[in-house]
Amino acid sequence: MDNDAVISTPALPLEEAGALVQALDDPARLWPLLLDLMARHLPCDACALLRRDDRAGTGRAGEGVLVPLATRGLSPDTLGRRFELDEHPRLKAIAEAGDGPLRFPAGCELPDPYDGLIPDLRQRLHVHDCVGAPLSVDGRPWGMLTLDALNEGRFEGWEGAIAAWARLAATLALAMERRAALAGDGGTALRILDDPPQGLDFDPIGASPAMASLLAEIDTVAASNLVVLVLGETGVGKELVARRLHTRSPRAAGPLVHVNCAALPDALVESELFGHVRGAFSGAVADRRGKFELADGGTLFLDEVGELPLAAQAKMLRALQNGEIQRVGSDRHITVDVRVIAATNRDLAAEVRESRFRADVYHRLSVYPLRVPPLRDRGTDILRLAGLFLERNRARLGLRNLRLSVAAERRMLAYPWPGNVRELEHAIGRGAIRARVARPPDGGVLTLTPADLGLEEGKGSTVAATVPVPQPRPPETPDLPLRDAVEDLERRMIREHLDRHDGNWAQAARSLGLDRSNLFRLARRLGLRE
Q: Is 276 exposed, middle or buried (0-12, 13-18, 19+ CB in 10 A)?
């Protein structure tokens, strides 16, 4: 596309139009620059550019999700929110408006998705003038521009200018797609997020240098067939990194098989990984394929790989070396085409030195290590991720909006988040429920404070109010026989360590200084495990 098409609408100074043209190869620069210019030329308190991504919805007909690509004048967490069209009638009305901008009257009863998200010293929570313009590229819905003001009548007579900016945004999007096609990447630069996994369904969101570097590295190594070892603290999103590696790889059309190694009983590890034949052991009534076979042609994700027992590690070495496996009870070798991605929060090199992990397996797994940065090293990405969880809890609680106070934002950025993204998700979920019970929303907008999140001043930046941490108990002398008293103490200690590690038996065993299998036997004897 020639540059004249880019600068034709609206009439911009040559310097500003030239800056837009120069940014065409970099969406991270282009869209914020576009909104900076819009905010300079239009009378808005806030504006946003949202990209439509139907893949991020639940799959029901008519649904879709709007993902913010850039915002101006909105709280930082807005960039992490995902706006489902069926839950936001104003955004849905804009998406269905056809050509031209849609302006909502001041008395419109449809809730505004940005209520409470425009920082204002006078604490005005509700938007009073709102305009949205749908964007189409090559005749297909692409996204929308939204402009908001806290005062009524701000956009009176500005509809034509707003329409010109919408045409410019659509022209820029088309120019980017054509450049991407000429570059031969098939438009992958415009991909928004991958289909979310079950459970912790967040994408590795972030614009911090640490995350930008990680995502670039992921997308580069994804094209290879190298074994990748994903390292990082608990709760940083290692599973999401594995999913991105798979979906950005040539194996994306094949299966992604997830194995939680910490949850595999010792007696069934080999059968789960390699399969078995009928009669191999008691209960093996039919042949069964293992996870390596199920992942043939795709990717096998070995989560918590540091928890694999040594015997299983020895049998896995051949599969890692040349793709050969052997079902339990069979003499026949089976060749599989599998890319292995492993993840752990343990220091496997230290485990090798302590003879708890095989050195040969470690070297096969760590061909390309990827370290996921902890949340405390990701700066304002904390607030982006908070936006994702705020929007989810807003929908669950049926609120007009759910937002963070300025003090809550400040405390969230100061807190070290030892549980990382998982802890952040749980803190916001608990805080939203506490706040909803404690006080009514202000016009449907509920504001979370540091106290709601357990991040009050004077608590040393802890979440003591949100995360139940077992406290030291005073010495007790129960009126029980010695053997019964010892068993009672063992039960309490096992329960406390399981609570501390979210029910993870392998981690509880480590913190108790026990082998996992010994802990299982003790728990069965104490009636804590069947």
A: buried
Q: H or E element: which one contains 149?
A: strand 140-149
Cα-flanking dihedrals φ and ψ of residue 378, to 5°? -110, 10
Cα 6 from Cα 27, distance rounded (Å):
15
Specify whether the CB–CB gap between 234 and 504 falls below 8 A. no
Q: Any idea what DSSP says for residue 376?
A: G
The verdict on whether omega for the bond into residue 10 sits within 30 degrees of 0, i.e. cis, is yes
- Spatial CA neighbour of 210 closest among 368, 378, 76: 378
Under the phi-then-psi rule, with left for phi > 0, alpha for psi from -120 to 50, and beta for the rest, what region is 423?
Answer: alpha
Q: Give pLDDT tens digits for 463-519.
A: 433 444 344 444 444 555 666 677 778 888 888 888 777 778 887 777 777 777 778
* Chain mean position to CA 487: 42
Beta bridge partners of 137: 140
441, 400 contact by CB (below 8 A): yes
> In this structure, how many other beta carbons lie within 10 angstroms of the beta carbon of residue 309?
17
23 residue type, one letter: A
Q: Can you state the percent helix, strand and coil of the chain, rounding each to 5?
A: 45, 15, 40
Rounded Cα distance between 506 and 491, Å, is: 16
The string of DSSP letters for 253-268 reads TS-EEEEEGGGS-GGG
Sign of CA dihedral 239, 242, 248, 250: negative
pLDDT band at 186 (very low <50, low <70, confident <90, very high): very low
Torsions phi, psi for 53 (to 5 deg):
-140, 90
Q: What is the mean pLDDT of the chain?
A: 84
Residue type for position 424: L
Q: CA 427, 429, 433, 439 torsion: positive or negative?
A: positive
Q: 129 forms bridges with which residues in the sheet?
A: 149
Closest CA to 288 of 330, 324, 316: 330
Collapse the DSSP code of 300 into the 3-class scheme (helix H, G, I; strand E, B; otherwise coil) and give the result. strand
The answer to whether the beta carbons of residues 315 and 308 sit under 8 Å apart is no
CB 83 within 8 A of CB 65: yes
**pLDDT (tens digit, 9 = 90+) per residue, 269-316?**
888 999 988 888 878 888 889 999 999 999 999 999 999 988 888 888
332, 27, 58: which is closest to 187 by C-alpha?
Answer: 27
Answer for the pair 401, 446: CB distance below 8 angstroms, yes or no.
yes
Write b or e for each residue in 288-306: b if 16 or more Cβ atoms lie within 10 A of its Cβ, otherwise e: bbbbbbebbebbbbbbbbb
